[in-house]
């Protein structure tokens, strides 16, 4: 029975993998691991061929490591795609999981070629496990991801059906493998869950995707793939139920000849060819926001930009932006923002701030420790009391875009008037995607920078809100990331900044009450970690010329 299984693995390595990867990597030059995948594949395929040509043993396993390295790079590519993503995209998550499972398949391929017992399993079981992760793990998930791409902008029954099905196909391969290693009951249940998830995708493809294909050949191939998937999953459920009840209805040999062949040739090959001929209409390119290249040492401090010679001496700036209108989009209109607020962003040098920090909930227990750490670092260092935050100095400087890597970048440095200790040192820039413009802020840290990408919206009568929270209807670049030389990582952090004039009825009364005779606007900055509200920073925005002429001690 081994030749059938070996041929299925050969098909996966030499045909299905290059076809599906070609369609996944739409812009290979945007991510280094994508370029490496394209370069490595011919060498990895030759390595796999050499391992298959040799008898099982140590030498065959060593040669097979070329394929393992390739699948490891595929895992790295999955991380490079997933970690910067600002929102959970069902279709791309399926593809990312498939790329990750391919690496597991590579491990089991080497284990099979060694001919030795691996993790308590004999060589033939290792072969079947390698096939499982190449097909159910990699090929099937990528095909499901392609199908889900067709529904990205829709909110109908088909899309709602795909959501639970996607969870099933993502976790199913791992649960089946765990069941094989631990419990036949878990294995059977996991196989049923996985089969049902794939079957739902196949039904949706037949009903909603196949009719939309432009060419007859593409429609035929995708239709055959969907029908084959349903047939293969019916056999899988029958086999799993038989095993669960203790009365097998189909033998392992029969499953290999029927389920295996239908799965490999019908579902996998026809599906891959269909998407190769006509790609998903809503494919998401591997695009990422522009990140600053700034990083710090163990201390940032208010003189960071001077120490690093980052200040552009041939230009002068006074505001965080030159013109708030550069953020105009369908969801933001600068003309609706009150003049004092607009002036604050365009002429920041003319204003002073007073800070009133409030740590929230469980975060209060760690506030003092955090303040000790951030105080030594002199970055993102928020006061523990309103008294310390009452006097804040700040300055705006133009920065060298060649060092930062972003255009039009300027630094905003804020420090406590009494201690001279930096509150934060940030490099501000803007960028656009196809929908909107973003405020792109980088806080230098050891090893990289904390990047906060905020989307502006009108708020209240004439206020503004800047938020990193993803817009579920129109997801974009917004988010908080750690940007390093390796890969940007989307962090489980969010922040929202509201700015109001004093006469705006939506402004919190307690915040307005903190204002003085020179106050022109107030702001509230809320931060969340893992969905928990951890910090509120209240600000009053005062005319600098007036405020600096008096002693402040609020």
Summarize the structure.
This protein is an alpha+beta fold and 554 residues long. 49% of the residues lie in helices and 18% in strands. α6 (157-182) packs antiparallel against α7.
Structural summary, described in words:
With 554 residues, this protein is α+β, with helices and mostly antiparallel strands. It has two domains: 2-277, no CATH class; 304-547, no CATH class. Helix content is 49%, strand content 18%. It is built from 16 helices and twelve strands. Strands 1, 2, 3, 4, 5, 6, 7, 8, 9, 10, 11 and 12 form a twelve-stranded antiparallel β-sheet that branches. Helix 1 (2-24) packs parallel to helix 5, helix 5 runs parallel beside helix 7 and helix 6 (157-182) runs antiparallel to helix 7. The protein is elongated and about 85 Å long. It starts with a helix and ends in a 7-residue tail after the last helix. The model is unreliable at 547-554 (pLDDT under 50). Keywords: Membrane, Transmembrane, Transmembrane helix. The chain crosses the membrane at residues 6-24, 36-54, 60-80, 92-111, 131-149, 161-182, 188-209, 221-241.
